[in-house]
Amino acid sequence: MSKREDIKVSSVEIERQKKIIQNIKQRNNMDTQKTGVSKQAMIITLGCQQNENDSERLRGMLKEMGYTFTQDTQKSDLILYNTCCVRENAELKVFGNVGALKHIKAKKPHMLIGICGCMMQQEHIVKQIKQKYKHVDMVFGTHTLHKFPEVLEKSMDETYTVIDILDSDGYIVEDMPIHREGGVKAWVSIMYGCNNFCSYCIVPYVRGRERSRSPEDIISEIIELAEEGYKEVTLLGQNVNSYGKDLKVPMDFADLLKKVNDVRGISRIRFMTSHPKDISDKLINTMQQCENVCEQLHLPFQAGSNNVLAAMNRKYNKEEYLTRIEKVKAAIPDIALTSDVIVGFPGETNEDFAETLDVVEKVGFDSLFTFVYSPRKGTPAEKMEDVLEKEQKQANFQQLLGVQNNISLQKNQQYQRKIVEVLVEGVSKNNAAMLTGRTRTGKIINFMGDKELIGTLVNVEIAEVQTWSLNGKIV
Ligand code: SAH
Ligand code: SF4
Ligand code: F3S
């Protein structure tokens, strides 16, 4: 058997979980007949798109069990926290929220509380939950997400905390239900895990090694999405440029993009995240040639200083990054570029930080995701020493935000009075009378229009420009 077949969860196991889904459905139906109200579930998702995609899987399973969804803790029969541990503040949020549920659970003992996701892949966290959060009914990790039905069934009958965590390089799970919301754009995971071990990052420890889904499974999921009326897909992976390295049939990410580009009905393709060390000329050419691949690239550079990049184990330097960006800009002149940056990595000096500002100014990103470094247990960087004081790191962070906000506004100003193609995604969050959508370059645009237009492509003339969004009118 090939290595890949070993890591795919067997269809026997998937059928077993599906059977448990049906058992739970029967139990829920019986309860509903008695009480007259259907069971309600609430999922709180923290973290990245990968976690959002996992929550869609959980929602798919819950829906088949007969649950409807609520945002109201008081009304919930089941509350699930899908957690992230990439920075400390994400973890603190979970402890705060789950702690607060203790009182609600005391009044509503039948309510079930579960915690899952990346944070649960850390031993010290699970220990803490067992000791201090005894009102939690179930805990499962990223490698046992598909066993949620089994864990839930057990926790319905037991009073102790049911725990199902696996320390593993990870699996590939196909054919479990999924429930997406919105109906216009969808996330599609193409690979799982990460092999890069950037010295600050916890992801490889909690998500396992890189493993690619087969192109057949990915394409058939996207064809189904097109048949359901979806217009846009975002291909997900921690490092999508590594796609295919573990496949039996030789295939890389550029080859996959071409295949997705051929799916009829999908008019927009995005992908994230790309690693600068792996962004090949072939990929740049493919992006340029595929008409449905959007003019947008998220390429995290993390830091501008070569000393810091080396200590981060990023495997490229500032000059190589800038050269890649130049190639991308030359091939796709109207591309929107975004990036992730960490401020205050151990050992970073003010001179190092100036190099980060230099990259930001030279590239001219459309927007940036900026983070203050947060030490993560078990990573190499945890043991590295700081040079800068906390206050100085904070000041640098604020300076970076200021510089980027000006650039973002300038970038958006280039859209003034232009006519752009917008995929209408829904009703604007801030103004129910308006519609919202995005350009191919990922800019959010609000405009007046009929709800019937949701899911279609319209042309919008930009009338007003802000740092975060644009307003316009349909032409
Ligand atoms: N795989 C992606 C994203 C991983 S996590 C990539 O390689 O870019 C998303 C972002 O969180 C990272 O790009 C990084 O900027 C940030 N991040 C990760 N670990 C962090 C830490 N310990 N402290 C602060 N930011 C961190
Ligand atoms: Fe973390 Fe680096 Fe992997 Fe991204 S590439 S998930 S930053 S280890
Ligand atoms: Fe967080 Fe896990 Fe994503 S740690 S950033 S939710 S892969």
Task: Explain briefly what this protein structure is.
The protein is an alpha/beta fold and 475 residues long.
Describe the structure.
The protein is an alpha/beta fold and 475 residues long. Among the domains are: 5-164, Methylthiotransferase, N-terminal domain (Rossmann fold, 3-Layer(aba) Sandwich); 419-474, OB fold (Dihydrolipoamide Acetyltransferase, E2P) (Beta Barrel), CATH 2.40.50. Helix content is 38%, strand content 20%. It contains 14 helices and 19 strands. The chain has helices spanning 3-7, 11-35, 49-64, 88-107, 123-132, 148-157, 203-207, 215-227, 253-261, 281-289, 306-311, 318-331, 350-363, 390-413; strands at 40-45, 68-69, 78-83, 112-117, 138-140, 162-164, 185-189, 191-192, 211-212, 232-236, 268-272, 296-298, 336-343, 367-372, 419-427, 434-438, 444-448, 457-465, 470-474. A 6-stranded parallel β-sheet has the order 2-1-3-4-5-6, sandwiched between helices. Helix 9 packs parallel to helix 10. The chain is globular. The N and C termini lie far apart (58 Å). The model has no long low-confidence stretch (mean pLDDT 96). It binds S-adenosyl-L-homocysteine (SAH), iron/sulfur cluster (SF4) and FE3-S4 cluster. S-adenosyl-L-homocysteine (SAH) binds at residues 86-87, 200-201, 203, 238-239, 273, 275, 300, 302, 340, 342, 371, 373-374, 376.
